[in-house]
Amino acid sequence: QVQLVESGGGLVQSGGSLKLSCAASGSILSRNTLDWYRQVPGKQREWVARITFGGTTRYADSVKGRFTISRDNVKNTLYLQMDSLKPEDTAVYYCNTFPPLSGAWGQGTQVTVSS
Description:
Layout: E1 4-7, E2 10-13, E3 18-24, E4 34-39, E5 46-51, E6 57-59, E7 67-72, E8 77-82, E9 91-97, E10 109-114
Parallel strand pairs: 2-10
Antiparallel strand pairs: 1-3, 3-8, 4-5, 4-9, 5-6, 7-8, 9-10
């Protein structure tokens, strides 16, 4: 079974930057459209960004212009560069394919932005 592993989260001040990574066993990340999501306790998981196999990207309005999704198909890794971070970006961040593999959700990586 595919297991996704997110990393790179941490505590950062408002206006700072973080780069998240997502890895998986096998080549699942190099063959599919991929998404980043985030979730705040007590709220539904929110879609953040998407990248197709060919590299076309889309972003939620809340992060457009500040976040950049990218992928390395050779390393089988997905990235999310987050700049100009705001306190409202605080959440646990997850990656998955599109459409998502229900059994593949990882533990996520916590991002905390202090004001």
